[in-house]
Amino acid sequence: MSESKNKLNIKNMKPNPCLGVIRLDYDYPAAKGDIDCPDTFCYDVYYKVVPGLTFEMCQRGKLEGEVRTRFQESIDWLMTEKKVSCITGDCGFMMYYQGFAMKEIRRERSVAIVMSSLLQIPAMLCGLSIEEDIMVLTANEENLQKMEPHFKESGLNINQKRIHIVGCDNVPGFEAVAEGGKVDSKKVQPGIVALVKEKLNEFPKTKAILLECTELPHYANAIRCEIGLPVFDAITCCNFFINGFQEEDRFGKQGWQEDWDGVQEEYIFAQNVKLENKVYLVNKPTTAPVPAEFTTTNNC
């Protein structure tokens, strides 16, 4: 802890800002850089699975039956129990839920809700000349195009000449994302960089790149290194809002906020789900031993 903070009564200090992540109902081995890997972040991150919210349901943009209620309960839990400063999701398709989260869930607390990295597009466009373009890398170009009508609620328009959407579907090894398996990042990285280089020849006015899929940030540094353009993703999006809550330690008023201890809370898939809701999980933990409560048979 800094010297200035040692002089203050710890009771008067505000907590370090933290991130809350709404997770799909599926588990997979997340690489560092993935939003579901706590070590991706330099601040506390807390996860909350929504039982029944499968990848397939999210792709359709639906919150069906009790899943809608559990989604709302999950965001309420992150705000009230963990007192997060910002809430996001672990799937780019959760952009479908941005409007619902903003209109029906937000309470009086100043909590930023950013369910997709796509929300950075307006700022990116403003930082470029009107003759410069953005390339958006996504796991599936067709599915992202289907979402376009829902973006208008958040003031987004991806159907314009300055935005070029590029699917990573055919990058060798990246099919593991759709299959919910472990991605061989060493195999995928050269393919991602090669794809960007290829598309830059097709879209030479591109001056910034946005990674839409939450499993793509792992490759952002490789793209920055090889291409030399600014790269934005789900992590830069979260960092942007978290930074808005953090004490600036180089100037201004000092010593009013606690330091981050550098230790993430140990997390096992679905550990924060209420016991009575765990029976509704479609997928059981795969990255850790299955706790006894997950083996309960649902006879309903």
N- to C-terminal distance = 52 Å
Unreliable runs: 1-5, 289-300
Note the main sheet.
4 strands, parallel
Beta strand %: 5-15%
Number of helices: 11
Order of helices and strands: HEEHHEHEHEHHEHHEHEH
Q: Compute the CA-based radius of gyration.
A: 20 Å
Structural class: alpha/beta
User: What's the total count of β strands?
Assistant: 8
Kindly report the average pLDDT value.
Answer: 86
**Helix fraction by DSSP (H/I, runs of at least 4):** 25-40%
Shape: globular
Description:
- By secondary structure, the chain is α/β, with parallel strands linked by helices.
- Helix 9 (185-202) packs across helix 10 (220-227).
- The chain has a four-stranded parallel beta sheet with strand order 2-1-3-4, with helices on both faces. Strands 6-5-7-8 form a four-stranded parallel beta sheet.
- The longest helix has 18 residues, at 185-202.
- It has helices spanning 3-6, 55-60, 66-80, 98-105, 121-126, 141-146, 148-151, 175-179, 185-202, 220-227, 234-243; strands at 19-23, 45-49, 86-89, 112-113, 133-138, 163-167, 206-211, 231-232.
- It has two domains: 3-116 and 241-295; 117-233, Rossmann fold (3-Layer(aba) Sandwich).
Short characterization:
It contains 11 helices and 8 strands. It has 300 residues and is α/β, with parallel strands linked by helices. The strands form 2 sheets. A 4-stranded parallel β-sheet has the order 2-1-3-4, sandwiched between helices. A 4-stranded parallel β-sheet has the order 6-5-7-8.
